[in-house]
Design a protein that fits this description.
The structure holds 2 protein chains of 2 kinds. Chain A folds into 2 domains: 143 residues, Rossmann fold (3-Layer(aba) Sandwich), CATH 3.40.50.1860; 108 residues, 3-Layer(aba) Sandwich (Rossmann fold). Helix content of chain A is 41%, strand content 14%. Chain A is built from 9 helices and 8 strands. Chain A is globular, with a radius of gyration of 18 Å. The termini of chain A are far apart. The mean pLDDT of chain A is 93. Chain B is α/β, with parallel strands linked by helices. Chain B has 2 domains: 144 residues, Rossmann fold, CATH 3.40.50; 109 residues, Rossmann fold (3-Layer(aba) Sandwich), CATH 3.40.50.12500. Chain B is 42% helix and 14% strand. Chain B is built from 9 helices and 8 strands. In chain B, α2 packs across α9. Classes of the chains: A alpha/beta, B alpha/beta. Chains A and B meet through α2, α3, α5 and α9 of A and α2, α3, α5 and α9 of B.
Chain lengths: 256, 259
C-alpha cells in the first residue's frame, strides 16, 4: 500500500475538496495506491500575478514539508503552475510530482508539438515560466484562452453547456491553425472537461492531475526520484519558521 | 531628492548593514540620491536550495511591498538571486531593480560572452536555474566557483589575502579557457573584491550592487519603470497577510535563538 499526498493549492471545504479528488476517477490507478487530498492552510486568491505565485510557493511548501515524516510515499501538487515543486523536492527524499512540467514532457512522448488550453489569459505566465526553464519554446505550438474567469472552488460545475463548446472550438484552432499535435488542459481545475474534449478532438488531450498520479505511481514502481544535484537540500531547514508563517496567515484568513 | 530603498536579504544588525552600505562608495552617484538600506525581518540562513529561495522571495517582498506608500521613488534588491523582484514589481509602480539579470544584460553591452564568478559549489544551482530562465545560456561562457563558504554578514572581511588571489585565478580561467569577455561577480557579498580584481583583470568586471544603484538612477532619470503587461498586478493583494507571516517568522527566529 503506497500513500500519496495530493496538495490542493487553495483552502477548501470538504465538498470542494471532494470535487478536486474526483479527477482521480478518470485514470486507472493501482488499487493499492491511496490518494489523500489536503488543502493548503492559506493561499493567494488566484494565480494571476507574481505576488500570487510567491504566496503559492510558500503555502504548498508548508502543506507538504512533513510528508515523508507523516509516512507518505510520494507527493503530487495539484496545480499546473508547479508551485512549491522545487522547494518540496529540496526538503523531501520521496518523489514529488508537479503536473506542469510533467504534462509538457509527457505530451512530447505522444507528438512533436503541444498547445495549452486555458480558461483566461491571466494564467499565461505560469506556463511561460516552465517553458523557459525547460527550453521548450518551439515545442509549444500555442497557448490559447477562452476568456472565462475560473472558479477554483466550484470548477466548471454548472458551466458545462457554455464552457465545453468554447474549449472545443479553441482547442480546434490550436490544432488546425497553430499545428498542435497534443492538447494540454491548462489547469487541474478544468478536469471536468477532459472526457468531453478527449471524445471530440482528433489528438490526445492530457488531463494533468491524473497524469501526475500515474507518474507518482511510476516513480515509486521504478524506485526513482528527483536528482539531489538538481534540487540540493537547504543547509539550515526552517520547518518551524514556515509553520509559524502559515499559522499566522491562516488565522488572518479565518478572521475575514 | 529621490529616495531609494535598498533591501538587504538577511536580517543583519547595523554593522552588517554598514558593510552592505559600503557598496555605495564604489560608484559615483547623483548627490541628490538618498539611499536607505533595510534588512528583511527574517529569512533563510543559507542560500543554496529551493527551500531557501522560497523563504527569501517572501522576506524581500515583505520588506519592500509598502515602499511606494512610504514615499520611496525606487527599490533596489541587494542580491544577485533577484529574489522577490518579480513579486515586488507586481505590486509597485515605482522601478524595482535587482542585479542578477540586470548585470548579465549589462555585461552583454560590453562583450558577447560573460562568466559568473560564484562563491562556492552549492551556489551553482541557482545560476544553473536562472541563466536558462533568462534565456542567456548562449551568452554565458561559464559559471565557476572559488570554493569558499560565504558569510552574508562579515562578507570578505579579514579574508582578503587568502581569497582575492583565488578569485583572480578563477576569473582568469573563465577568460582564457571558457572565452569570457566580461566577468560578473556572482554575489553582492563579493563587492569588497571588486576594485582589486578590476585592476588586475584584462576584461571588465561587473560589481552588481553599484550597477543597480546606477540603473535605478537611470530609470528615474528617463522616467521608465517595468512593464505592467510583463508584471500584472494581483487581483487580490494580501499584504496584511504577508506582513503577519514575516512578523511570525521573526518571532519564531528570536525564540529559537533564545532557546
Amino acid at each position: 500500500m503506497a500513500r500519496i499526498l495530493v496538495i490542493v493549492p487553495f483552502p477548501m471545504s470538504d465538498a470542494e475538496l471532494a470535487q478536486r479528488a474526483s479527477q482521480a476517477k478518470s485514470a486507472r490507478l493501482d488499487p493499492a495506491l491511496e490518494l489523500e487530498f489536503r488543502s493548503v492552510r492559506a493561499a493567494p486568491a488566484n494565480y494571476a500575478s507574481e505576488h500570487d505565485s510567491m504566496l503559492a510557493e510558500i503555502s504548498i511548501l508548508d502543506a507538504g514539508k512533513q510528508a515523508e515524516a507523516e509516512g507518505f510515499d510520494a507527493v503530487c501538487i495539484d496545480t499546473m503552475s508547479d508551485s512549491g515543486l522545487a522547494a518540496l523536492r529540496s526538503v523531501l527524499d520521496i518523489p514529488v510530482i508537479g503536473p506542469g512540467r510533467a504534462a509538457m514532457l509527457f505530451a512530447l512522448t505522444l507528438g512533436e508539438r503541444f498547445s495549452i488550453l486555458m480558461m483566461w489569459d491571466r494564467w499565461r505566465h505560469l506556463y511561460q515560466k516552465t517553458i523557459a526553464e525547460l527550453n521548450l519554446d518551439w515545442r509549444c505550438a500555442s497557448i490559447r484562452s477562452i476568456g472565462v474567469a475560473p472558479n477554483n472552488r466550484t470548477l466548471l460545475a454548472g458551466k458545462e453547456g457554455d464552457v465545453f463548446p468554447r474549449l472545443l472550438a479553441t482547442a480546434t484552432q490550436c490544432i488546425e491553425e497553430d499545428g498542435a499535435e497534443v492538447i494540454l488542459l491548462g489547469s487541474t481545475t478544468m478536469h471536468q472537461a477532459h472526457a468531453y474534449l478527449a471524445e471530440h478532438l482528433p489528438v490526445p488531450v492530457i488531463n494533468p492531475g491524473p497524469l501526475s498520479y500515474r507518474l507518482a505511481e511510476t516513480a515509486l514502481a521504478l524506485r526513482l526520484r528527483h536528482s539531489r544535484r538538481a534540487f540540493p537540500t537547504p543547509l539550515v531547514p526552517k520547518p518551524r519558521q514556515i509553520e509559524a508563517m502559515l499559522t499566522a496567515a491562516a488565522s488572518l484568513e479565518a478572521r475575514r | 531628492m529621490p529616495k531609494i530603498l535598498v533591501i538587504v536579504p538577511f536580517a543583519l544588525d547595523a554593522e552588517g548593514i554598514g558593510r552592505r552600505r559600503n557598496q555605495l562608495r564604489a560608484v559615483k552617484l547623483d548627490p541628490d540620491s538618498d539611499f536607505h538600506f533595510r534588512p528583511v525581518k527574517a529569512g533563510p540562513t543559507s542560500f543554496m536550495s529551493a527551500h531557501d529561495w522560497t523563504m527569501m522571495d517572501l522576506a524581500i517582498f515583505e520588506a519592500g511591498a509598502s515602499a511606494e506608500e512610504e514615499g520611496f521613488d525606487a527599490v533596489c534588491i541587494d542580491t544577485m538571486s533577484d529574489s522577490g523582484m518579480a513579486a515586488l514589481r507586481s505590486v509597485l509602480d515605482i522601478p524595482v531593480v535587482s542585479p542578477g539579470r540586470a548585470s548579465m544584460l549589462f555585461a552583454l553591452t560590453l562583450g558577447s560572452k560573460f562568466s559568473v564568478l560564484a562563491q562556492w559549489q552549492p551556489a551553482l544551482a541557482r545560476y544553473k536555474k536562472a541563466i536558462p530562465e533568462y534565456r542567456l545560456e548562449r551568452h554565458c561562457a561559464s559559471v565557476r566557483s572559488f570554493d569558499m563558504p560565504p558569510n552574508f554578514d562579515q562578507l570578505l572581511d579579514g579574508k582578503q589575502e587568502a581569497v582575492f588571489p583565488r578569485m583572480l585565478e578563477v576569473c582568469m580561467k573563465c577568460i582564457e579557457e571558457d572565452g569570457a569577455d566580461v566577468i560578473c561577480l556572482g554575489s553582492t557579498t563579493m563587492h569588497q573584491a571588486a576594485e582589486w580584481l578590476a585592476e588586475r583583470l584584462p576584461v571588465p568586471l561587473i560589481n552588481p550592487g553599484p550597477l543597480t544603484y546606477k540603473l535605478v538612477e537611470s530609470m528615474l532619470a528617463l522616467g521608465l519603470t517595468h512593464s505592467r503587461v510583463g508584471y500584472p498586478k494581483p487581483l487580490t493583494p494580501k499584504l496584511p497577510m504577508v506582513h503577519a507571516m514575516l512578523e511570525a517568522a521573526a518571532r519564531q527566529e528570536a525564540e529559537s535563538r533564545g532557546r
